Amino acid sequence: MKKGLIVLVLVAAVVAAGAAVYKYYEAAIKRKPEPAVTKTVVVPPGYTTAEIATLLAEDGVIADASPFVWYCRLNGLDGKLQAGEYVLSSEDGIPAVAAALAAGRVHVVKFTVPEGYDKRKTARVVEAAGICSAEEFLEACRRGDPRGRVPTDDLEGYLFGDTYEINGDAGPEDVVATMVDRFFEVLGPDGLARAGEPGRSLQDAVTLASIVEREALLDEERPLVASVFYNRLARGMRLESCATVIYALGGDVDRLTIQDLKVDSPYNTYIHAGLPPGPISSPGRASLMAALDPAQTDYLFFVSNGDGSHTFSKTLRGHLAARAEKNKKLGKR
Q1: Residues 6+ apart with CB under 8 A from 74
Q2: What is the pTM of this model?
Q3: Which residues of the chain have pLDDT under 50?
Q4: Disulfide check for 291: which of 100, 161, 176, 208 has CB 3.0–4.6 Å away?
Q5: Measured between alpha carbons, how far is 132 from 283 in angstroms, rounded to an integer?
């Protein structure tokens, strides 16, 4: 009887101790640091659960490291926390923080580069997104395509305009590679094959597509604009594209002057025959397809109507008449 009583007392003590430990554990798990913070935390590859817990505690995301380790071990998450850059809030608590790390819900940066942007404008978008500086992005561009698909070290024209989601710990090289990958995805095997047909090259096709992108606003007119440029090239005429002059002047010009058209640059197609040395923007899919499959026309000129559309002409006389008609309409307004 005496022995049985001792056993009962011991069991009761163990249960009480277990309950106390569990109560302490539960309280520790729920405890959050004060004041509340939201931090960007970078978990290096190879870090153990204990090392990650220490990192989180030092950043103020959790109150103490030990409860975090206990929680991970008791819930089968030990050794399953993933490296990466995370944006974590102390308000979330240990269970939510551990779940985010186990699921690899890394911080994602979203940014949009419009079609027709050149690499300088693209660099400013990437910088504004907080990924890297504009100069770091441009330096990554100067190193060329890491996969060797672009036939030049200059990636102008191959940084496809789109909306991207990039891991927060991505560097400029990662952004460049992602944008170039998207270019070749949109171009596709058929487009790449067309660009490699006799008498063509990928670089020339992208260069002409980049001019079409900057000159045409309506997708249905892009094949017509491309046909004009191809017809002028075939006749040895200068392209006389204002878009190439704007690029030569740095890209931030709203209105060209007569003097601007005389700028000494290989990109000035008013004074230099043939295509410019390379693309002047990153063309969208419609412009790429127009350059690879232009309309079959006899047009040699086009003039903007001021509403996004153009009037196309086969002769200089017709072009001058179209310009006069446009000026007349604008004058009436």
Answers
A1: none
A2: 0.78
A3: 333
A4: 208
A5: 24
